[in-house]
Amino acid sequence: MSAPVNPLPDIAEVKTFLLSLQARICQQLADADGGAQFKQDQWLREEGGGGQSRVLTGGKVFEQAGVNFSHVSGATLPASATAHRPELAGRSFQAMGVSLVIHPLNPYVPTSHANVRFFIAEKPGEDPVWWFGGGFDLTPYYGFEQDARHWHQTAARLCKPFGDDVYPKYKKWCDNYFFLKHRNEARGIGGLFFDDLNTPDFAQSFAFMQAVGNGFTEAYLPIVERRKHLAWGDRQRQFQLYRRGRYVEFNLVWDRGTLFGLQTGGRTESILMSMPPLVRWEYGFEPEADSPEAALYRDFLPVRDWLQETE
């Protein structure tokens, strides 16, 4: 008997990859830091499933870095999921993924976020509904065109085998998603964002998710290496702490993943691991004209086609 043309998703295979990805990224980040190791925290969810959170704090390079794996399940979906996909109402679900947020100490090293995830909803007598999602994005405090080009060139390169339209599509989605509507301002310089991916089949969709997960450190760590030894002072630190406030605002006001985690009874400590350890707000802050801080707003936060940039 021949195998089905479009076989059902292999949940175990996805989970094996995600656990391996978490371990590899943690090791690469610890090596880049050179002074701290991740602490691991296993947790269980009463409604079903659990996960493991790994957090590095007080490093030489990374003030805080968290890399979470979760695999949760339940009999019904929360409102945040069924509002987006009403056809999922009444189905049981499993959701698994790796999510990470890195907050460096040096203000010249950008914050970064990445996640890759898999979702499946099932109902007896009906085909399962499943998809992959994820991406990565970069949030600099001080802009460097070399870094921005490298970040987007790496994203474009990993998308290339999957079609010429993939990078432009998911870059635009990222630019639109990581946008603070209440401030009319981008969170950073974007990257990739994809969701609801289930075509042309499981194998191809899974391969793309793996490419994004594996490609994150190729995009991020060279930037860390270039910037982590730059000298900085209180001015740079204060601006970094101020801009971290935008990160908090986005995650608590707009991020669908944060809302899904909280509504499904996920582990709050792990969900809010994305928050920076220190942050500040300042009423009516305006950067000095023609300063490096002003350049972030002028030259980096507005959407740009970084693949067309030249030295």
Overview of the structural elements:
The chain has about 300 residues and is α+β, with helices and mostly antiparallel strands. It contains 9 helices and 9 strands. It has helices at about 10-35, 80-85, 145-160, 165-175, 200-225, 235-255, 255-265, 270, 290-300; strands spanning about 40-45, 50-55, 60-75, 90-105, 110-120, 130-140, 180, 185, 190-195. The protein has a 7-stranded antiparallel β-sheet with strand order 1-2-3-4-5-6-9. β1 (about 40-45) and β2 (about 50-55) form a beta hairpin. It is globular and about 65 Å long. The N and C termini lie far apart (about 55 Å).
Which descriptors apply to this entry?
311 residues; disordered N terminus; two-stranded antiparallel sheet; seven-stranded antiparallel sheet; 24% strand; alpha+beta
Write the layout of secondary structure elements.
Layout: H1 11-33, E1 39-44, E2 49-57, E3 62-74, H2 79-84, E4 92-104, E5 111-122, E6 129-139, H3 145-159, H4 166-177, E7 179-180, E8 185-186, E9 190-197, H5 202-227, H6 234-253, H7 256-263, H8 268-271, H9 292-300
Antiparallel strand pairs: 1-2, 2-3, 3-4, 4-5, 5-6, 6-9, 7-8
Order of helices and strands: HEEEHEEEHHEEEHHHHH
Oligomer: single chain
Mean pLDDT: 92
Tally the helices. 9
Number of strands: 9
Percentage beta strand = 15-25%
What global shape is seen? globular
**Helix/strand-derived class?**
alpha+beta
The residue ranges in which pLDDT falls below 50 over 5 or more consecutive positions are 1-5
Order of adjacent strands in the largest pleated sheet: 1-2-3-4-5-6-9
**Terminal CA distance:** 57 Å
Radius of gyration: 20 Å
Largest sheet composition: 7 strands, antiparallel
Helix content: 25-40%
